[in-house]
Amino acid sequence: MAGRKDICELGKRTRFSSTNPPKNPGRKPSLYNHIKKLLGTEAKAELSKEDYFKLIQFLLEQPLDNLKKLADSKNTPIWIVGVVRAVVKDANAGRTTTLDSLFDRLFGKASQPLTGKDGETLFPPRTLTPQEAKEYGIKLEEEY
């Protein structure tokens, strides 16, 4: 394999040291600080996770006209505009894709049991009894 014969010397010449520091030392500024400086505002999270869920639930209960007004307002936060426009677009097309994902986010996905070819549930959910759990623990200790 042909390569540079002077690679070792090149590495020594370009190695960082007290006499050969990088041209732009230090950490790069964070994106958060860059945006804060650019906008001249302090960015802070004001809503909790529960507040977001309540707000999405509220939006999903609104009439279409209210959602359109909200999406067209210049003062509406962009994430709300995105949710509203996706819901309105789906509603106009007769789809429920956005609603499905929002409901999954709000209420959790519905469990879907595994079924075999005959329709019988393969792994019916159940809770171990204390005795079964103890026996299972002993068996695991013996095997491992």
Structure explained in plain terms:
The radius of gyration is 29 Å and the shape is flat. It has seven helices and no strands. Helix 3 packs antiparallel against helix 6 and helix 4 packs across helix 5. The protein is an all-alpha fold and 144 residues long. The model has no long low-confidence stretch (mean pLDDT 83).
Structural class: mainly alpha
Report the helical percentage: 40-55%
Count of alpha/pi helices: 7
Morphology: flat
Multimeric organization: single chain
- The biggest beta sheet, please? none
Unreliable stretches: none
Please tell me the overall pLDDT: 83
What's the total count of β strands?
0
H-E order: HHHHHHH
Beta-strand percent range: under 5%
List keywords for this structure.
55% helix; 144 residues; 7 helices
Care to give the gist of this entry?
The chain has 144 residues and is mostly helical. Helices cover 55% and strands 0% of the residues. It has seven helices and no strands.
Give the SSE map.
Blueprint (H helix, E strand, L loop, with lengths): L6 H8 L16 H9 L9 H12 L3 H9 L5 H16 L3 H11 L22 H14 L1
Helix pairs in contact: 3-6, 4-5
